[in-house]
Design brief:
This protein is α/β, with parallel strands linked by helices. The protein has twelve helices and 20 strands. The strands form six sheets. The protein has a five-stranded parallel beta sheet with strand order 2-1-3-4-5, sandwiched between helices. The chain has a five-stranded mixed β-barrel with strand order 16-17-18-20-19. The protein has a three-stranded parallel beta sheet with strand order 6-9-12. Helix 11 links the parallel strand 14 and strand 15. The longest helix has 24 residues. It starts with 7 loop residues before the first strand and ends with a strand. Bound molecules: iron/sulfur cluster. The site of iron/sulfur cluster has 10 residues, from helix 5.
């Protein structure tokens, strides 16, 4: 391969927001090192595929993407979660140039340098990398990853074996990145990790510095500091530990968004124990009630699994009762499907496929009515929304209750107002359907 001043790298990013953040870091480094990033196979000198290996369908999608890149371009480096299965990848695609694992930024960038050398180092005066780095999300929101890995061992999950134990980023670094993103125009930060509540536990909540001020690497202190930035801050992957109570006042005061993404996964204590879930012994209903007393605006999003091995009719009824009591706003549910290498595969009494699907159906029906009622209750309220896009007379926006890509949206009629993506505006909610709200801009 001839050396070129600005070799061109194609990039395919698969998987969850955490993988997206990894892709952004790799791309930022490649640009800093003098590579051009191109959007198609034809013009790329080499293609990096950032894979996902979370569930079997993600593995299949990743394998397909590798196959496509090989046949379209031929020179492929594989990275990301599926990278832990290097042998399988190389067996299926012997032409792959290199395989690196999750969070191995230096390794994948090193592999690009090996297989596609660049003669010219990055010149900061000529090749500007934007101060916020390369972002794959729209300009006005960004994912901010605060830690890697996870100390839990949920029986259905193989993330710890792919990504390792919890490694928290220094809070000074996290805040510096948050400020950089804000200064580059980001209006909403989405805080992600595998376990946001555990932030700092691995480094004993070490004190670091932000703007010369000592600050502990811990969830509460992080939320307080982020709350000072004056932009939206949304928390994902929070587990319902008692210390989460401490951030409710920040939400009630409007410092961070009144929104919690808590993957409960089930409600039956027996199943939670067999899933080995974090905070499995907490009384979640009592906790949710207490949170809503402090912050009535709180939106709770969650995910659940129906038909986990050993789930009895009684366990499932318990789950439905929990839904009725908890009145969660946004909920996703999956029928349990075994993940290659997960401990749960050894559990007894698997639920027959038909019963799993039947339970999933009942779950979704129960929750759909709850979610629709909760949306309906917002008709007549006034909400601040963040504009995501404007298309002629219609704009798509989100309120504090809507995370991008996973929740609903607020449809806004633009009328004669001049608005653009990234604007915060006030709307009166005039209508609701099953998933979304419809709003009218509040005049002067
Ligand atoms: S908390 Fe459980 S499900 Fe989440 S990453 Fe850790 S082990 Fe997996």
């Amino acid at each position: 391969m001839p050396m070129s001043a600005h070799p061109k790298v194609g990039f395919v990013s698969l998987g969850c927001p955490k993988a997206l953040v990894d892709s952004e870091r790799i791309l930022t480094q490649l640009r800093t090192d003098g590579y051009d990033v191109v959007p198609d196979y034809d013009n790329a000198d080499l293609v990096v595929v950032n894979t996902c290996g979370f569930i079997d369908s993600a593995v299949a999608e990743s394998m397909d993407a590798i196959g496509e890149a090989i046949s379209e371009n031929g020179r492929v480096i594989v990275t990301g979660c599926l990278g832990v299965k290097a042998d399988e990848i190389k067996a299926q695609f012997p032409k792959v140039l290199a395989v690196t694992g999750p969070q191995a930024y230096e390794e994948v960038v090193g592999a690009v340098h090996t297989h596609l050398p660049t003669v010219q180092k990055h010149d900061p005066f000529l090749d500007l990398v934007p101060p916020q780095g390369i972002k794959l999300t729209p300009r006005h929101y960004a994912y901010l990853k605060i830690s890697e890995g996870c100390n839990h061992r949920c029986s259905f999950c193989i993330i710890p074996s792919m990504r390792g134990n919890l490694v928290s980023r220094d809070i000074g670094d996290v805040m510096a990145e948050a400020e950089r993103l804000k200064n580059a125009g980001v209006r909403e930060l989405l805080i992600i990790s595998q376990d946001t509540s555990a932030y700092g536990v691995d480094i004993k909540y070490r004190t670091a510095f932000w703007n010369g001020r000592p600050i502990k690497t811990r969830m509460l202190e992080l939320c307080e500091a982020l709350g000072e930035l004056g932009i939206w801050v949304r928390l994902h992957y929070v587990y319902p530990y008692p210390h989460v109570d401490n951030i409710m006042p920040l939400m009630a005061e409007g410092k961070i968004l009144p929104y919690l993404d808590i993957p409960f996964q089930h409600a039956s204590p027996r199943i939670l124990k067999s899933m080995k879930r974090p905070a499995a012994s907490e009384n979640n209903l009592t906790r949710i009630k207490a949170w809503r007393e402090i912050c009535p605006e709180l939106t709770i999003r969650s995910t659940f699994i129906a038909g986990f091995p050993g789930e009895t009719d009684e366990d499932f009824e318990h789950l439905l009762e929990f839904l009725e009591e908890a009145q969660l706003d946004r909920v996703g549910c999956f029928a349990y499907s075994p993940v290659d290498g997960a401990k749960a595969n050894e559990l007894e009494n698997p639920v027959p496929e038909e019963l799993k699907q039947e339970r999933l159906q009942r779950f979704m029906e129960t929750q759909a009515a709850i979610s629709a009622n909760r949306l309906q209750a917002k008709v007549g309220t006034r909400q601040v929304v963040l504009i995501d896009s404007v298309n002629g007379e219609n704009a798509i926006a989100r309120s504090s209750a809507d995370a991008p890509e996973i929740d609903g949206v607020v449809h806004v009629s633009v009328d004669d107002y001049e608005i653009e993506a990234g604007d915060f505006i006030e709307v009166d909610v005039v209508q609701a359907d099953e998933h979304d709200l419809y709003g009218q801009i509040v005049g002067e």
